[in-house]
Design brief:
By secondary structure, the chain is an alpha+beta fold. The protein folds into 2 domains: 3-86, 3-Layer(aba) Sandwich (Glutaredoxin), CATH 3.40.30.10; 99-228, Glutathione S-transferase Yfyf (Class Pi), Chain A, domain 2, CATH 1.20.1050. The protein has helices at residues 23-35, 51-56, 76-86, 99-124, 131-151, 164-169, 176-183, 187-190, 192-204, 206-209, 215-228, and strands spanning 3-5, 14-18, 39-43, 65-68, 71-74. Helix 1 (23-35) packs parallel to helix 3 (76-86) and helix 4 (99-124) runs antiparallel to helix 5. The two termini are 27 Å apart.
Length: 232
Amino acid sequence: MEGDKKANGSGRGVVLLNCFVSPFGNRIRIALARKGVAYEEKSENLAAKSPLLLSSNPVHATVPVLIVDGKAVCESLVIIEFIEEAFAGVDEALLPSDPYARGHARFWASYIDTKLPACALRVWQSPKGAPAAVEGKKDMVAVLKTLEAGLGGKPYFGGEALGYVDVALVPFAPWFLTYERLGGFSVAAECPALAAWAARCVRENECVAKSLPEAESVYQFVCGMRRHFGLD
């Protein structure tokens, strides 16, 4: 999707390079919406990357990239923290002010990025039933259970309100359906508290609800990718 996102406005030129199914890019949509920042989103076809993407992120050539006043910021967790600093004072902070709590939040966000994408790729980029897919599913369930334990009995990872870790993780929720169908398991059955948390994030936070794609749309996109790679 491409166009202006209506918000309170920041008085600055803000452009997000994104792909609609990207959990990493959709983190930035949530953070910008949370802060009420007006921005333009430019959709990227990752099979034919635009000159703007390649020039803005020459090291990795991946989304998301946030361009503010012509200057590019790359890597989703870095961008979230940039948004927290660059648009300070607009809505409440995602990162806690306490240094220990802030470090704790960064630990869990790093855990998500270190563990979840790797096993997710093995699930959806492998033929059904292949050893890589089976191991990917096993590892994914273990990661989700660890995250559920980290959530504990709290409504959100940081306590009573949406925070940094929630924003880091919840964009993967629209992918749960894809993981389930291709991996042959149920997130709700394996991790009921985590499934309830994901639903709560969407239900209670407009910035989340309006920033994430439909789960079926993600699945259909992945099916197209699998056909392209000859996996189905």
